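Request from the bench team (R.T.):
"We need a structural guess for the complex before ordering more zinc ion. Sequence and SMILES attached. Just send the tokens back."

Command: build protein-zinc ion structure.
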Amino acid sequence: MEKQRTIEKEFSLEGNGLQRGLPVKAFFYPGDEDSGIIFVRRDLENKPSIRLGDLTDIATDRRSKIGDYVETVEHILAALWGAEVDNIRIELTSSEPPGLDGSAILFLEALKAVGIKTQRREREFIEVKKPLWVEDKESFLGIFPSQTFKISYILEYPGPAIGRQFFSDIVDSEVFQKEIAPARTFCLKEEVNSLLRQGYGKGANLKNTLVMAKNGPIDNILRFPDEPVRHKVLDLIGDLYLLGKPIKGRVIAIRSGHKLNLELVEKIKESQ
Ligand SMILES: [Zn+2]
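Reply to R.T.: structure attached below.
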């Protein structure tokens, strides 16, 4: 039986949020058994906190957002999933965690560098008992009962800069660290201005975001030939961890993004 885990000791990271671009510090503290993953806004009066899994209010457009206080948590959550951390308290001085390099790898390495501590209580998983899915036009996201966690993802963007990419594998913490965690966030060159106008990507730059043009990313080098689809898998893993517990199941995703991811999270919660 697997046991719950937390971090050995506290640490902090700082940077700027990817979307709003505000400077932020994130403090990570070990959590007691069964305490779960908790975010705290230490810069606000009364220091409001949110525990994953208790969420009644998750909504998103281009980022996962929980309640009124915390947003763009998908990369940090994917790293927690990859480090198999069940119990931790993360205190933020702004609404978004630091964007770091636009992937999950620096969060994951920081978590592993302080050490992961095994606790006594058993780790709990979410298991789906029947197929669950959500869809919107040509996008689809479904999860089917299975004892392993396998993701198959089809990414499709108009034009040649990204095009169609496919990822399919059983994802465990090792596969995550090597194949998924280093994949950075991305957008099309043509999208940059409209995203900025909508208030997104203010903390983005050409190093932490792949700005994809016809011949590849502008002023950057891909870490994988199919880095965008791997990043979509990263986001999906992070969004699913909003449930507060790791999930078992066979996931099929076609052009899914945060909106569908969060709709599926809601559906999974309702089915439990
Ligand atoms: Zn992302």
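Two things stood out. Helices lie at 74-82, 105-114, 173-180, 192-197, 227-240, 258-271. Residues 74-75, 185, 231, 235 surround zinc ion (CB under 6 Å).
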